[in-house]
Each structure stands twice: as C-alpha cells, then as structure tokens.
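Quick start: what a row looks like.
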Amino acid sequence: MLSYRKGPEVPLRNETIYQAFASAARTFPDRVAFISRPDGVRWTYGQLLDEVEKTARGLAGLGLNV
C-alpha cells in the first residue's frame, strides 16, 4: 500500500513536546490555553505552563524519572 501526504513541506522539529509547549507558552503567556466549564477553570498558557512544571516536579519527587 502506498502512503501519501497532504499539505506543505514542513521540516521535523528537533525538540520535545515540552520544549515546543514551553516556547509557545513563553511567546503567548497571556492567551487562554485551557477552559474547563464544569470546574470553573480558565488558564492562560503561562498558568498552564506553571501547572505542568509543578506536576512534573511532583512526579519526579515521587521517583518517576525518564
């Protein structure tokens, strides 16, 4: 079976998902990134980055290392 692709030629990024997210969060820290209406939560990219880093530190503190 042949494969195909659509869209423009885009080079692969040489960074982790976290690095790409952190870069976007630092570029647009005040833009809304996450909304949970049932929980009444509305976070900007800057706030979400803080929560991601806090969660990562907590998991590392529990011994989860990659």
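That is the whole record. The mean pLDDT is 90. The first helix runs from residue 17 to 27.
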